[in-house]
Amino acid sequence: MSWFVALVGILIAAIGLGATYQAFATSRDRSKFPPPGNSIEVNGTTLHYQIMGEGYPAVVVDSGQGATHLDWQLVQPEVAKFTTILTYDRAGYGWSDLSSQPRTAAQIINELRELLQAAGIAPPYVLVGMSLSGLFSRFFAYQYPAEVAGMILVDVTHESIFERLPPPMVKLNKRFDWVAIHLLPIAARIGLFRLLVACDILPLAGDLFQKLPIALQPAAKSIYAQTKFWQALGQESVAFPVSIEQVVGARSTKPFPDIPLIVLSSGKPDFGATAELLQTMQELHAELANESPQGVQIVTPSSGHIIQLDEPELVIDAIRQVVGKVRYNSAN
Question: Could you give the CA distance from residue 128 to residue 150 in angstroms, rounded to a whole number?
Fold first, then answer.
């Protein structure tokens, strides 16, 4: 029995040491990696954003779940050459504070609209949504069609995903959500993710880091080591069913605006995706493209899920096309 008591003692000591080091290292990272953009308080939460370029219409970019504005740094400087572009970190990610508000589509869009108003970015916008944030961008368009002039959807989530995927894949996704909600924040709090990042053995994230410009990789790794990052990911997983309900409700009662729309779909499996999943998502994306009379779908065989890092020129060109059409439409 004494060996068991000793083992428990060692475990408790290790957890305490890990939590202490996590707090210290997080504080150190704040000094080492200052925010590259600006910050605005929205409903008591400080949100970080970065604006480049000038011109109409403004492009507003939202990232996927567990992602930050850093994922757009191969795209943002190029788009800034022909118009205004804003990227930002949703609450809890990057340099933005964690929020106590539920991370539903409605809440996130309300925060984004307040951020844009406070930052002096006037509508109508060209919205760029990636993965999970595709739900948010489309909800924005349903709720505030006069504020949306165009849209680019980058390998986005669809509200019917659980209805269309095979049952084993649905179960796998729900298990991930359970882990994200209940276990990952605890693991982050005791410094486990910081250890995995330092050893370059964090599952899947290693591929992501390699896709980023070398100069940004240290900052990205420090973000993935933060407790609040994994808390935010869990919060969005909790809110995911509600976000789906909100988008379904909006879609059933309000028409999608007649705006220039380009839907980009990945054609190369990565991050655990199967050929079956890619085929299903491409079919769902085709449905999204048909929501607007001006909608177009582009399937790229050269890119995995994070198209803006795998094939940034494709995303830049899609934004350029939509911005050009918005300018033409507004002049005629």
Answer: 9
Q: Which residue in 169, 170, 184, 132 sits closest to 154, CA to CA?
A: 132
51 strand-pairing partners:
86
Q: Using an 8 Å Cβ cutoff, are 86 and 119 in contact?
A: yes
Tens-place pLDDT, residues 178-192: 878 888 878 778 777
What does the alpha-carbon distance between residue 60 and residue 326 come to, in Å, rounded to a whole number?
A: 14
3-state DSSP assignment of residue 158:
coil
pLDDT higher than 80, residue 317 = yes
3-state secondary structure 250-266: HHHHCCCCCCCEEEEEE
Question: Mean pLDDT, the chain, as a whole number?
Answer: 88
Which value, to the nearest 10 degrees, does the dihedral of the CA atoms of residues 215, 310, 152, 66 take? -60
Calpha distance 226→264 (Å, rounded): 31
Q: Show the DSSP H helices in the chain as ranges.
A: 2-32, 76-79, 105-118, 133-143, 161-164, 167-182, 184-189, 192-198, 205-211, 217-224, 227-253, 275-289, 307-310, 312-331
Are the C-beta atoms of 266 and 303 separated by less than 8 Å? yes
Pairing assessment for the beta strands 45-52 and 85-89 based on DSSP bridges: antiparallel
Burial class of residue 167, CB neighbours in 10 A (0-12, 13-18, 19+):
exposed
Structure tokens at 95: 């340099």
Sketch out the chain's domains with CATH numbers.
33-331 (3.40.50.1820)
